[in-house]
């Protein structure tokens, strides 16, 4: 028997999945057995069993400004070149994605949801001729 695969993180169980977990629990099965059988985490099964309601609560919060297709387009643009990767969120909203009429925060949130983060790039100093000769000499000396 192969070990159970890890279920995706932060996936909410649907009404039918919660109902399956509750029914199997009422039939006398353990939470671990139910989790392995249905492919959920044990914590998801425990929550579904402990919940008094089968229908999950509606998610709270503001709906996203960008659709999945727009986020796909944004991600493709970011991956297209080095200059695109280094553009600020503000520059993205004013430049290539100005027709979307969203703020820099919507762009930032969309990219963060796909796992992108921002970091300061380290400037690599140019390799001078003198340093090149020193490195070549060192490499020749340590060849064997």
From TrEMBL:
GO terms for molecular function: DNA binding. Signal peptide: none annotated. Residues 125-144 are annotated as: Disordered. SUPFAM superfamilies: Homeodomain-like (SSF46689). Pfam families: HTH_Tnp_Tc3_2. GO terms for biological process: DNA integration; DNA transposition. Residues 79-144 form the Transposase Tc1-like domain. InterPro entries: Homeodomain-like_sf, Transposase_Tc1-like. It comes from the Eukaryota. This is Transposase Tc1-like domain-containing protein. It comes from Paraphaeosphaeria sporulosa.
